[in-house]
Amino acid sequence: MEILVVVSIFGFLAAMAVSSFLALSEKYKVEAETKQLYADLMDVRGRAAQRDRFYHVRIKAGGTGYETYEDRFPTLEGDDVFGNGANFQVANVTVNHAITPVINFTFNRNGIPNITDNLWLSSTANADYDCITIRQTRIKMGKRNGTVCVEK
User: 110 by DSSP, 3-state: which?
Assistant: First the structure.
């Protein structure tokens, strides 16, 4: 009887440990994807200013990932519009947590984005970082509080 009680207690503790581990794992995955998106946006912004070229960011349909492109021949095209066959793909990233909203934007030759918006990764995990604010003068990570991204 005592062995049965001890085994059931160990089983209960093991089940609790596994569920806690899965919750922590999900939280860290969201944070890792947010940090990767932030790093890629900062890289593209820096490249735009350093190379004096337009860079385009495209969130994939359904928010399943994102792509970044360098506009290699803006002077030949005469515009900074995505397309026209003069774009070189820099990054193509797939994410497990949908990016919202699905938007496309451009960094100009000074590294300034043409939008002011928030991006967040959809998840029920209580991650410390799950959103990014994009402003004319800064890009920062934060934690989503309802519909607002609180920068950290």
Answer: coil
Q: What's the pTM?
A: 0.83
Residue extents of the structural domains in the chain: 2-112
Rounded to 5 degrees, φ, ψ at 110 are -100, 5
Q: Are 38 and 120 in contact (CB under 8 A)?
A: no
Calculate the dihedral angle through the C-alpha atoms of 83, 67, 113, 55, rounding to the nearest 10 degrees: -50
CB 55 within 8 A of CB 69: yes
Cβ-count burial 2-15 (b if 16+ within 10 Å, e if not)? eeeeeeeeeeeeee
Per this entry, what is the length of the chain? 152
Arch. (CATH architecture) of 2-112: 3-Layer(bab) Sandwich (3.55)
Cis before 101 (ω within 30): yes
pLDDT range class, residue 24, cuts 50, 70, 90:
low
